[in-house]
Task: inverse folding
């Protein structure tokens, strides 16, 4: 009886996962031409404000005690 309940629970979980994944597939639609202007606005960029990014990199470099700590191989410890 216990194995049957476990099997039933596993089947229900698999069915729920399939239903939820099937619902996500229909949501994604291509970007329409009239929506591209909205996506091209500066606030929609991944990197955001360039001055703020330089400030954050400066803070990161200062905390890591290594110049060029953002994106450059190696660190302040000498282990390249």
Result:
């Amino acid at each position: 009886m216990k194995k049957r309940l476990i099997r039933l629970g596993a089947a229900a979980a698999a069915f729920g996962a399939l239903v939820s994944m099937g619902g996500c597939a229909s949501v994604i639609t291509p970007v329409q031409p009239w929506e591209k202007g909205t996506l091209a606005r500066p606030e929609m960029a991944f990197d955001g404000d360039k001055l703020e990014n330089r400030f954050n990199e400066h803070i990161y470099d200062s905390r890591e005690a290594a110049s060029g700590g953002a994106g450059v191989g190696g660190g302040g410890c000498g282990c390249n």
Observations:
- The chain has a mean pLDDT of 72.
- Residues 25 and 78 are 47 Å apart (CA to CA).
- The helical segments are 2-25, 36-39, 50-64.
